[in-house]
Here is the input.
Amino acid sequence: MTGHETDRWSDQGDPAKARRLAWMWVSFALIAWGGAGLTWFAWWVAQVGNYRDNWRGFNEDDGFPWIFVALCAVAGVWCLVVARRQWARARHLAHVDNS
Here is the structure.
């Protein structure tokens, strides 16, 4: 196990690093939700466009990819929970530095 000083995922008590980590988790949430939205849109286009033998994506008769979309949505929510906690830590560290 790595020490607190060498841990790249730690803010190491620095408010600026804590804010950067919070933004990182927000971006992970947006990427996860973007993946879910892109998957939904690709499936919808295949249904509306009557795609058949589409080797690059979905076909007209394909079922909705519930598992992937749900996993991406849940991952996005989880990333936002982590980001919220990181924002709270950044505010706490900034308050401690200003005191």
About this structure: The helical segments are 15-48, 66-98. The first helix runs from residue 15 to 48. The chain has a mean pLDDT of 89.
